[in-house]
Design goal:
Elements (H helix, E strand, L loop, with lengths): L5 H8 L3 H9 L6 H14 L5 H7 L5 E7 L4 H16 L3 E7 L4 H10 L7 E5 L2 H8 L8 E2 L15 H15 L5 E5 L5 H16 L5 E5 L4 H6 L1 H7 L3 E4 L2 H13 L9 E3 L16 E4 L1 H17 L12 E4 L8
């Protein structure tokens, strides 16, 4: 059976093939009733857009670029994976430009190095504060998309996925009976770090507990190891950690000092990196679907370029607590 064509969709929807083509490209406004008929015909016929043909026919550059901070970290690398996958499926090429530090000049130089005549838009993945500061006042010639995550409220449930995940982690330790819970935070300037820390504080204070940040790291296992002494000095029985890499470093540092996880200290990470399930003990952590986040962000850039309104939105997604062996009930 031959695959359905745009002409088949047009006949089934009772419109011209040009109307179908323009609607599917998102280049024109379409009446709701017409859009509904086209959507139904697409679904009934199992029609799939020929991305290669679309790319060859388009007068708009079909190349995107991503400026990425901390590409070696699990979250950013998975976001890039999702963005690249969605770009490929939509018929766009995708260039990657790593950013080695957070200085304003580095971001602006990276943007200036991109050829605006060969690109349709730029996706930026990195610390909110640094990106906003670098882009303020810049006359950028290309569409630039980045997720400007707001700080969560201090007196209400968190709105961000980062905050919601951190709230799950802290609540898990409280439910297990821990009364002395501390937090090992991530670097300043990252909304992810700030909202995870803020949500941890909100949950603990609502439970009538003190909320302390005993150390801050830079997302690396080395910085988690360095936090071990501060955790032990705090007398905590439970620790929430800003990411899994720091958590595994903390576990190693505690073991080197003779402390046992979870017998002496329960630990909850964040990210659910691939290695988390195979640590000793397996790490209880928060799973955020970063690949989906990458797809959503890439679609946000495409919508900015084309004015379209696809099913993906740059905000939203799923978050869940994955309970393993690094936490125990008191």
């Amino acid at each position: 059976m031959r695959p359905a064509t745009v002409y088949d969709v047009a006949r089934a929807a009772g419109v011209s093939h040009m109307t179908v083509s323009r609607y599917l490209r998102g280049t024109v406004k379409t009446r709701p009733e017409t859009a509904a008929r086209i959507d139904q015909a697409v679904a009934d016929l199992g029609y799939r857009v020929n991305r290669t043909a679309r790319a060859l026919a388009s007068p708009v550059p079909r190349r995107l670029a991503a400026l990425v901070f901390d590409l070696h970290e699990s979250g950013p690398s998975q976001i890039v994976q999702g963005a690249a996958q969605h770009a490929r499926e939509a018929g766009w090429s995708f260039d990657l430009v790593p950013i080695v530090d957070e200085r304003d000049v580095t971001v602006t130089q990276a943007l200036a190095s991109l050829d605006p005549h060969g690109l349709a838009g730029v996706l930026v993945i990195g610390p909110t504060v640094a990106i906003r500061r670098a882009l303020e006042g810049e006359d950028v010639k290309l569409p630039v998309f980045w997720v400007d995550e707001d700080l969560d409220p201090v007196d209400a449930p968190p709105l961000s996925l980062n905050g919601q995940g951190a709230a799950l982690a802290a609540a898990h330790l409280v439910e297990l009976g821990h009364r002395r819970v501390v937090h090992v935070g991530g670097p300043a300037g990252w909304r992810a770090s700030e909202n995870r820390e803020r949500a941890n504080e909100v949950v603990l204070r609502r439970a009538g507990l003190d909320a302390s940040v005993v150390a801050r790291g830079d997302w690396t296992a080395r910085s988690g190891w360095a936090a071990a002494d501060a955790v032990l000095d705090s007398g905590a029985t439970g620790v929430t950690v800003a990411n899994d890499q720091m958590a595994l470093g903390l576990m190693a540092g505690l073991a080197a000092s003779g402390a046992r996880v979870p017998d002496d200290v329960s630990i909850v990470g964040f990210d659910d990196i691939p290695d988390a399930a195979y640590l000793m003990p397996a790490l209880t952590t928060v799973r955020l679907d970063y690949v989906d986040q990458g797809k959503r962000r890439l679609q946000g850039l495409l919508d900015q370029i084309t004015g379209g309104d696809e099913k993906f939105t740059p905000h939203g997604g799923t978050i869940e607590l994955v309970v393993r062996d690094s936490t125990r009930r008191l």
